[in-house]
């Protein structure tokens, strides 16, 4: 397992344990984690607090994103993909996209390299959550 | 002046008075304001706290965005446009796009109606800010 993806999965499981949506994210630059977070929609009542947004928020004002890699347990939606494109993050590594296709093509069309690890562990985590909480999941993706 | 755009401008000026970036946003549904906010990058050290994100965060978990209109004093960037597309906001009204072209075409390509009021007041507010704070502005848009 990619060690940074493992941290993202740990973030997702931490969110799940708090009653939240199990999606985690990590921002890496120069081989070090400079931000990490998980979805906080439920915990903070904040529909913008997707995992990637929480992660980038926690990284703080780092000035620029050149050379950084964003990890997420799930393919980013348009909100989070928009952040990737706007702030010039050029590489995104995701745990899976089977449970949610996200905005892969949008990122790629803006020159972002998107790597999908297609991990059974990430699929199982989301499948289980969506089956148990379909309304919460649909709310999170605006459906 | 559109009364909702006036509230967005007031939000922008409030942020400016606190040392922040002068961009404001308002979310309207059924003719009433259900959320408003301004850019808080400086005030909260949060690079994700663009005006539209702050506004949508403040609106809270409203369940769906059908019939809602997002106002912003400035054309949304990809981050904020991504939120618009992801959450199904179908109409965006902006104060101007002369100082920043934003992601108008991206939103339109996803069926969003984008109305640009091209207000001299909004242009002057941003022009003055960018001239005085070019580094802060470039940081806000990831450049």
Short recap of the structure:
Chains A, B: Pfam families: dCMP_cyt_deam_1. Chains A, B: It is found in: Cytoplasm. Two copies of one chain form a homodimer. Chain A is built from seven helices and five strands, in the order αββααβαβαβαα.
Word description of this protein:
The structure is a homodimer of 143-residue chains. With 143 residues, chain A is an alpha/beta fold. The first copy, chain A, has one domain (3-141): Cytidine Deaminase, domain 2. The first copy, chain A, has seven helices and five strands; from the N terminus they run H-E-E-H-H-E-H-E-H-E-H-H. Chain A has helices at residues 3-17, 41-44, 51-59, 78-86, 104-109, 120-132, 134-140; strands at 24-29, 32-38, 68-72, 91-94, 113-116. In chain A, a hairpin with a 2-residue loop joins strand 1 and strand 2 (32-38). The mean pLDDT of chain A is 97. At the A-B interface, helix 3 and helix 4 of A face helix 3 and helix 4 of B. Chains A, B: Its cofactor is Zn(2+). Chains A, B: This is Cytosine deaminase. Chains A, B: Keywords: Cytoplasm, Hydrolase, Metal-binding, Zinc. Chains A, B: Homodimer.
